[in-house]
Write a structure and sequence with these properties.
The chain has 181 residues and is of the alpha+beta class. The protein has one domain. It is built from six helices and six strands. Strands 1, 2, 3, 4, 5 and 6 form a six-stranded mixed beta sheet that branches. Helix 3 crosses helix 4 and helix 5 crosses helix 6.
Length: 181
């Protein structure tokens, strides 16, 4: 039997339903064509979508760290195996995207995935900068701000962020556990 990384199975499972790019998935300004108003498009404010190379780096990071971390392995099994909740997952993804957009204007060095929510958790991937608390790349501070956002306060009971890095920068995998009480 071939050992296929957990997160790779999740990606393969979702490929047919995902938008053509992460930019479209995150409803980024980069996802739509800008009307021509001169030689320069508007400056990017806040998070940028992941590039294909960044998606691969993060996927490798998820696979590697899930092998060594039992909690993360369990979270990734949920991402892979658990179906979305028809009445909650899409709405939670939109609320997370909106809250991230509201709180991320200063975070111009971060690239992030769209949130993906199953019945019990949401997962987000991000990368950027070479210092996890750099003012323009502080993912962990952003997550705290997002969880304090009035639109999301109380929606999640716990969060877990795995932080790592390589020669290209810091990488983050954040899991938000749905509050069910």
């Amino acid at each position: 039997m071939v050992d296929v990384p957990v997160a790779a199975r999740a990606k393969a499972r979702n490929e047919s339903s995902e938008p053509a790019s992460n930019a479209a998935a995150f409803r980024s300004p980069q996802a739509s064509a800008y009307p021509s108003r001169g030689a320069n498009p508007p400056a990017q404010i806040g998070l940028k979508p992941l590039t294909i190379e960044q998606e691969r780096r993060l996927q490798d990071f998820v696979d590697s760290s899930a092998r060594d971390n039992a909690d993360q392995r369990d979270y990734e099994l949920l991402v892979d195996k658990e179906a979305p909740d028809a009445g909650w997952s899409d709405a939670a993804e939109r609320r997370l995207e909106d809250a991230i957009r509201r709180h991320s204007a200063r975070l111009t060095a971060l690239h992030a995935s769209a949130p993906y929510c199953t019945r019990t958790l949401c997962r987000m991937l991000a990368t950027g900068g070479f210092n996890s608390d750099a003012p323009d790349a502080d993912w962990q501070h952003l997550i705290v701000d997002v969880l304090r956002d009035p639109e999301l306060r109380g929606a999640f009971m716990d969060q877990h962020t795995v932080v790592g890095g390589d020669q290209k920068g810091v990488m983050y995998v954040t899991y938000l556990m749905r509050r069910t009480d």
